[in-house]
Amino acid sequence: MYQINISNRFKRGVAAISRATLLGCIAFDAIPLRLAQAEETKIVVVTSFPEELTTRYEQEFEKRYPDLHIQFVWKQSRDALAELSKPAQGGADVYWAPTIANFATLRERGAFQKISVDRTALPGRLGREQISDPAGFYEAYDVAGYGVVMNPALAAASGLAAPKRWRDLAAPNYARHLAMPIAAKVGFSPALYDIFLQSEGWENGWAQLSEMAGEAALLAQGALPTAQVRDGAAVFALTIDFFAVSAKANGAPVEMIYPERTAFLPAHIAVTAATKHAAEAKSFVDFALSADGQKLMIERDSMRHPARPDSYQGAPAALVDPFKLPADSILDYDMDIGRRRPPLITLLFDLAIVEGHDERAALWRAVHEAESKDSGAKAKETLSEVRRLLSVVPVSEREAKDPAFLDAFGDRDAVDPQRIAKWRDDLATARRQAKEKLATLGIAP
To answer: Which UniProt keywords apply (predicted)?
Structure first.
């Protein structure tokens, strides 16, 4: 669609040439001049945004700049980083994507030019959270919220209120009605779980994730959490908000809940250092960040949150204005840790939650059932130890904040297989010990 795009101006020029030639009213040697006037400047934009969104920007931008043409090159995170690391950055003029890690990495490599913005219109912050590059090499285009999609009718029928905090979902009456995305299968979920872990603390967070997942359904596609809630297969699900907000805007019986201390993570836009069309590339960036450009993302099939506060005027009611949320309700998210942790979180989620999930679910059900009974001090002590064993995570909080340690997991294929095997064995041992301790109480999951 974008590789061959003959502008209307070009078509009109060719048509005029044909008529003039047939009538003999114009000299033959004028044709090259007319064709040269019809040529466009092409701006190459590397992006992972969906076509229904990029098409709007192409159409509206080219109305304003008829001599400029946008060519979108679709690349997911890893491929985009490789493309923009090529000589001359693969010919790209603009990078526009929801990939925090890539923008930080490319900035460190000198891959971007500075861009200037009006900080009265684009604050670059959301609450205490920094969403734009403080040095000015890339700017927040939108922000995506993370939280819980809920089916209000089913929640009411189950006697469950909307969760206010992340940890509410670890309670068994919530977890049994919960769906969770698998970190290795769903692109947004490592960031979601990192928000959870930064909010709740590394060790406490993993303990809560383990308990939540113990009785929850695990899902392998990004749209499935919202679809499960919409269709009544789950009452709650963890998700990124544009799936839920778009579903609600299209009539689905769902609500998006933002727990206390959640985060809204940005997509960014930047001009490449190697561009040969700097002024034109900056025109596209300026348009994407303008009031008109920001409003283009507020449509029923996308429903994204602008990074520009004045763009929320007239927005659909389903779209929460995060700039109006209480500042203390938004996590002071550590972007540097957040860009490094996802590979480690993905690996640990596989080992600690996905593998052995059925066995762990049976153990958590047994713990919850035993805790619901009136038991003595010895039983309570044993159950507390079982909880600890089921919540084991083989990485310390100190390691989980160490950039050098985290960066070692950037390429999973390069991770020491003996380390993975040891972690797998440690987690299996903890499950076995938990089962043995339950057996001392006469409980056989």
So the answer is: Signal
29 domain residue, yes or no: yes
d(CA 153, CA 211): 25
DSSP string, 385-430: HHHHHHT--SS-TTGGG-HHHHHTTSSGGGS-HHHHHHHHHHHHHH
- Residue 289 near residue 117, CB atoms below 8 Å: yes
Q: Which two tokens stand for residue 414?
A: 């390069």
- Of the candidates 428, 438, 389, 387, the one whose C-alpha atom is nearest the C-alpha of residue 172 is 387
Domain count, the chain: 2
Of the candidates 283, 214, 230, 247, the one whose C-alpha atom is nearest the C-alpha of residue 63 is: 283
Residue 390 domain boundaries = 145-263+334-439
Query: Rounded to an integer, what distance in angstroms lies between the CA atom of residue 42 and that of residue 67?
Result: 9
Give the tens place of pLDDT for each residue, 248-302: 988 999 999 999 999 999 999 999 999 999 999 999 999 999 999 999 999 767 7
* pTM as predicted: 0.87
Q: How far apart are CA 406 and CA 426, in angstroms?
A: 20
Do residues 154 and 131 both lie within one domain? no
Pairing mode, strands 217-219 and 129-130: unpaired
Q: Which residue has the tokens 């160490």?
A: 402
Tell whether 21 and 61 lie within a shared domain: yes
- The dihedral region occupied by 92, where left means phi > 0, alpha psi between -120 and 50, and beta the remainder, is beta
- Dist CA 257 CA 242 (whole Å): 12
Residue 206, token pair as written in the block = 């993993």
CB 96 within 8 A of CB 48: no
Q: Rounded to whole angstroms, how far apart are CA atoms 346 and 329?
A: 26
C-beta neighbour count of 331 within 10 angstroms: 20
Rounded-to-integer distance, Cα 359 and Cα 426, Å: 15
Q: Which of 8-17, 82-91, 330-339 has the lowest mean pLDDT?
A: 8-17
- Burial code of 126-152, b = ≥16 C-beta within 10 A, e = fewer? bbebbbbbeeebbbbbbbbbbbbbbbe
What digits encode the pLDDT tens for the residues 92-103?
999 999 999 999
Q: Are 235 and 288 in a shared domain? A: no
Question: Residue 241 — pLDDT band, cuts 50, 70, 90?
Answer: very high
Do 20 and 94 share a structural domain? yes
445 falls within a domain: no
- The answer to whether residues 194 and 259 belong to one domain is yes
The domain boundary, picked from 278, 298, 329, lies at: 329
